[in-house]
Amino acid sequence: MKILLTGATGYIGKRILPALLQEGHEVVCLVRDAARLLHDTHESAKLSVVEADLMKPASMDQIPKDIDVAYYLVHSMGSGSNSFSNTERTSAENFAEALQKTHAKQIIYLSGIVNSDVLSAHLASRKVVEDILRGGAVPVTALRAGIIIGSGSASFEIIRDLVEKLPVMVAPKWLKSQCQPIAIRNVIEFLIGVLQQEELYDRHIDIYGPDLLTYQQMLEDFASVRNLKRKIYIVPVLTPRLSSYWLYLITSTSFSLARHLVDSMRIDVVPVENEWAEKLGINLISYRDAIKLAFGKIEQNLVLSTWKEAGTRRAMQGLSTYVEVPAFGVLTDRKTIALNNPDETLKRIFAIGGRNGWYYGNWLWQFRGFLDRLFGGVGLRRGRRNALETAPDEVLDFWRVLLSSRQEKRLLLYAEMRLPGEAWLEFRINEKEELEQIATFRPHGIAGRLYWYAMLPFHLFLFRGMIRNIAK
User: What is the DSSP string of 423-454?
Assistant: First the structure.
C-alpha cells in the first residue's frame, strides 16, 4: 500500500514511520524541510520524501497521484503561534483540496476527544480540522485520543517534571478533571489498524486506555510507580493564567503550550466507549504499565521522538536556513586545543548537555537557562532525547542540533534561547587532531552588540574551561 505521511518529523510521525515500513508499506513523507527527516535511520527503498508546505497550495502539486491512504498528523499547538487555530484551518483546507487530485481512498486523522459541551480552543480547533477534512472528497477516519503516555510525549514529560521535582504540590482545582489516558504503543496500533477499514470511512471513534482517572490520580500513580512519596493539595485560587505560569515555570513546556494544556485540562476528556480495540486485536495497556514501558525506553536510550522536537518558529522554518554559519557581520569566539585521545573527545562532544552538563560552569549554564525561562524562553529543561547520541533537528537544552556527524567529527548547534541576535556553537576535530570550539553571534542592532560585549567576561573563562574539559 502506498501511504502519504504528513507530520513525519513530529512526535507521532516519527513513531509511526518505522512501523509502517516494517509492515511493508511504501511511505511518502510530506515535510516542509527534508533535512529534518533522518533518512539514515530508516534505510528502505520504500521510503521517499516530498518537500511541501501545507500553507502553500502550489507546493503540494508534487504529491504522488497514486497514493492509497494519507495520514494527517499535523499539529500547530506547540509552535508558539497565538493563531494556531487559523493555521490549522488553512493547512487542513489546502490538504483536503490537494488530496482530491490523487487516488487516495482514505484520510486517517489523529484528533482529540471532544465529547464535552464546552471545549477548549485547542480541542475546538481539532474538531474544526476534522470537519474541514470531511468536507473534501476523500473519506476520513478520525481517531480521537485524550492524554497520550509514552517516552517523550508532552503529557508524560510534564507529569514527570511535576512528580520528580515537587515533593509537595499546591495545585489548581482542574486536577479533579477526568481523562482516560492511552499508551503511545496503542495509539500507533490504532493508527495502523484502521488502514482501509471501510466500516470506519467518514466516521470517528474515541481511542483510550483501560483506566478512567483524574489528573491528580495520574500524578499519584506516577509517583507510586517511581517509588516517590508526594503530597498534593488542591486550592481554588489558581486562575487558568496563574496555572499556566505555574506549569511553565515548573516543567519543560513552553508558556504557549502550557496555556493550551490548562484550557484543555479544565474540562473532562472522557471517551465514548466502543469495541474497536477488540475488533483490531489491540491489547490496551494500563496507565501504570505505560509509565513502566516509557522508562524502559528512557533507561535504554531508545526514545524515538519527543514532543520538544516540534520546536520554535525558527526550527519550523527549516534547518537549511541556519546550517550555513554566517562569516560576515558576526562576532566570534574561537578556541583550539591539541588532543591526546580524539576518540574519547568525540564521545564527550556528542554527549554534551542534558544530564551530562556542559563540562564547565554548569551553574552558569543553569542560571542562563533560568533567565531565559524568566523572559519566556525555552530554558535548559528540554534536556536531550538520548544521553549518548545526537541527531539533526533534535533539541539539546536551549539549542537545536543543526548538524551531527561522527564521520565529519562535527557538531553544530543553533541557539533557541531569547537573544538580541542569532547564535551558533560548533565543535569539530580537524585533520591535525585538534578540537576547535567556535561560538558565533550575529547581533541584531546595538542591543545585540552590547549583549555580546557584556558577556565577554563570562565567555573568557566559561568557553576556555569547557574546551579544556572536553579535551581531557
Answer: EEEEEEE-TTSEEEEEEEEEE-HHHHHHHHHH
Which candidate, 49, 60, 47, 59, places its Cα nearest to that of 96?
A: 60
Is 276 a residue whose pLDDT tops 90? yes
Grid coordinates standing for 183? 499508551
CA proximity to 133, closest of 98, 95, 104, 101 = 95
Q: What are phi and psi of 329, to 5 degrees?
A: 70, 25
Q: How many CB atoms lie within 10 A of CB 43?
A: 8
The secondary element (H helix, E strand) that includes residue 220 is helix 215-225
Q: Which residue blocks in 139-214 are alpha helix, DSSP H?
A: 154-165, 184-193
Q: Please give the single-letter amino acid code of residue 269.
A: V
The reported pLDDT for the residue numbered 314 is 47
Establish how many alpha carbons lie within 13 A of residue 434's alpha carbon, considering only the half-sphere containing its beta carbon.
9
Query: Which string of b and e fits 199-236 if b means at least 16 CB within 10 Å?
Result: ebeeebbbbbbbbebebbbbbbbbbebeeeebebeeee
Nearest to 272 by CA among 142, 397, 417, 391: 142
pLDDT of res. 80:
46
Q: Which residues contact 467 (CB under 8 A, 6 or more apart)?
A: 335, 337, 435, 437
DSSP letter at 58 equals: G
**What dihedral angle (degrees, nearest 10) is formed by the CA atoms of 354, 356, 359, 360?**
60
State what percent of residues in the chain have pLDDT above 90.
41
* Amino acid in the structure at residue 277: A
Match 488542591 to its residue by C-alpha cell.
234
What ranges in 23-172 are assigned the alpha helix state H?
84-99, 121-134, 154-165
- pLDDT over 90 (residue 114): no
Residue pair 372/378 in contact (Cβ under 8 Å)? The answer is yes
* Nearest alpha-carbon partner for 268 in 147, 406, 429, 366: 147
Q: List b or e across 237-248, with b for residues whose CB sees 16 or more CB atoms inside 10 angstroms.
A: ebeeeebbbbbb
Question: Phi and psi of 470, rounded to 5°?
Answer: -65, -35
